[in-house]
Amino acid sequence: MNKIHHIKTISEIHQMMGLAKPKHPLVSVITDFGESQEMNLEGIRFSTDLYSISLKSDVEGTIYYGRNTYDFQEGTLIFLKPNQVAEYEAGSEEVSHARTWSLIFHPDLIRKSDLGRQIDKYHFFDYDAREALHLSDDEKSSIQNIVALIQKEIESNIDRHSQELIVSNIKLILDYCTRYFDRQFYTRTNLNKDVVTRFEKVLKDYYDSGQAFESGVPSVSFIGKEMGMSPYYLSDLLKKETGQNTIEHIHFYIIDRAKSVLLGTNQSVSEIAYSLGFEYPQHFAKVFKNKTGTTPTEYRKVKSSQ
């Protein structure tokens, strides 16, 4: 396996790509990939201490997910956060012939701002590359206009307003991307229904096989891996499609299954809890009451008497 190259600063990115020194130590907009790149990134695995938002347009071989009739073809945004491992894979078209840019910023840029406290709510930084955002021409234009404002601010004389304006525009980009991901989930509604069906089958197979007794309640990460999706993407997709995220779906399935066992067998509550993957019956009882308003014992008693 190739060594992972770790990049700590904006300056290192510029140096690695043969670019001039950055105008700002904590943020940069890179646009001249084809002209200034001095090294071949093909097959190189890397991670950084940085956030990045990158547009890939007219570049073959970089999009792995969801190229179906619901998607726009004009451009794709890919998001990376600190310590994610990425690998560049070229296609048949030269990067210099493509329209690409990357907005890169260090966490220190936003650390004292509202965005620094809210950055984790932008789940798409945890999506896989194949779950990227596919933009229409209008959407791409909106994002690029904001990036141009950030670039202009970086290249101007830095003053006491600069950082606040740059951070505000980064947040604006992320808020627009949240809207555009909502659009993407919406326009893929038929595809998403297939995902919901697959999700339910994975969950049913897990419990029918008795795996819960051995391995516990399935985690969001486990379900995502089984479905070939990042946990956050799967959870956001389910939330948009059904109103419930992944853990809520798992709990709903568990409670529904528990109800059947409570009324259809003489198993104790503890036995049912263990069979459903709970390490402690008290935890099962708490989840059950939270979802139904009653304890498993009370539910069995009331329903059996009806």
Summarize the entry for a quick read.
The chain is of the alpha+beta class and 306 residues long. The chain has helices spanning 10-16, 33-36, 107-110, 114-118, 137-155, 162-187, 189-208, 211-215, 220-227, 231-242, 246-264, 269-275, 281-292, 296-305; strands spanning 4-7, 27-30, 45-48, 51-57, 75-80, 86-87, 99-105, 133-135.
Terminal Cα span: 63 Å
CATH architecture of the largest domain: Sandwich
Strand order of the largest sheet: 2-7-4-5-8
Radius of gyration: 24 Å
Uncertain segments of ≥5 residues (pLDDT<50)?
A: 59-73, 92-98
Shape: elongated
Provide the CATH top-level class of the largest domain: Mainly Beta
Count of strand segments: 8
Main sheet overview? 5 strands, antiparallel
Strand content: 5-15%
| CATH T-level topology of the largest domain | Jelly Rolls
Q: Which structural class matches the secondary elements? A: alpha+beta
How many DSSP helices?
14
Mean pLDDT, to the nearest integer, reads 84
Order of helices and strands: EHEHEEEEEHHEHHHHHHHHHH
Helix content: 40-55%
The count of domains is: 2
